[in-house]
Amino acid sequence: MKTNKILYVMTLLLMFSLLASGLYAEEDNKINLNSATVEELVKIPGLNKELAEKIIAAREENGEFIDMEELLEIDGIDMKLLRQLKKHIKVEELDGCNC
């Protein structure tokens, strides 16, 4: 009986660790908004070249993005598109100070 409980707990731990590693792997596949090129951005569903160029221009004008909600300030990006983009992009600082 004790062996069954140990196996059950070990199985649960294994499942949680596999789930967690999958979530981290998904995050690694996302494009960093602060280093993305137009070519990378246009590969994301919902973004065309014009929007990708607007994102790069906003980054060049205002500095690094701090959070993805800043994209809502770009003409052509609404909440629906932002939700879709969040599946493919992340925001990580590059300069050492994202303030």
Key terms:
mainly alpha; DNA polymerase, domain 1; 4 helices; elongated
Folded structure, characterized:
- The chain is mostly helical.
- It has one domain (3-90): Photosystem II 12 kDa extrinsic protein (DNA polymerase, domain 1).
- 53% of the residues lie in helices and 4% in strands.
- The chain contains 4 helices and 2 strands.
- The chain has helices spanning 2-28, 38-41, 49-62, 79-85, and strands at residues 31-32, 89-90.
- Strands 1-2 form a two-stranded parallel sheet.
- It is elongated and about 65 Å long.
- The termini are far apart.
- The mean pLDDT is 84.
Rg for CA atoms: 19 Å
What is the mean pLDDT? 84
Structural class by helix and strand composition = mainly alpha
Which CATH class is shown?
Answer: Mainly Alpha
The succession of helices and strands, N to C, reads HEHHHE
Low-confidence stretches: none
- For the record, the count of structural domains works out to 1
- The oligomeric state is single chain
Question: What profile does the largest beta sheet have?
Answer: 2 strands, parallel
Strand content: under 5%
Shape: elongated
CATH superfamily: Photosystem II 12 kDa extrinsic protein
Count of beta strands: 2
Helix content: 40-55%
First-last Cα distance: 56 Å
CATH topology: DNA polymerase, domain 1
